[in-house]
Write a structure and sequence with these properties.
The chain is an alpha+beta fold. It is built from one helix and three strands. The N terminus is likely disordered.
Amino acid sequence: DNQAAGKSTDGNASTGNNPTSDGLGLDGRKLKNRPDPGIKNAIGKVWVRVTVNSDGNVTSAVFRRSSGFGSREDEVRRACVNASRQLKYSADPSKPSQSGTICWNIK
């Protein structure tokens, strides 16, 4: 599921632009850190819509959907949104704002 994403101005990264980062990439940017959402003993995926500024900082992280967490849904959702806010991408002065949907693959 982590195949290279096609180039788009939206930067949709649900399939991942960085093959080693579980779908946390944005087109044209490198992921500089990967915070751990801290979820143990759960398997599933969480999709979060992020907006990144030209410096590579996440300015917005909004839950979109998830699968596989049952009674732990709220806990996992909060953890992934919080971890998404801590992501840091490479700077791109040509893109003052870039958005994409990232996917946390919890194993």
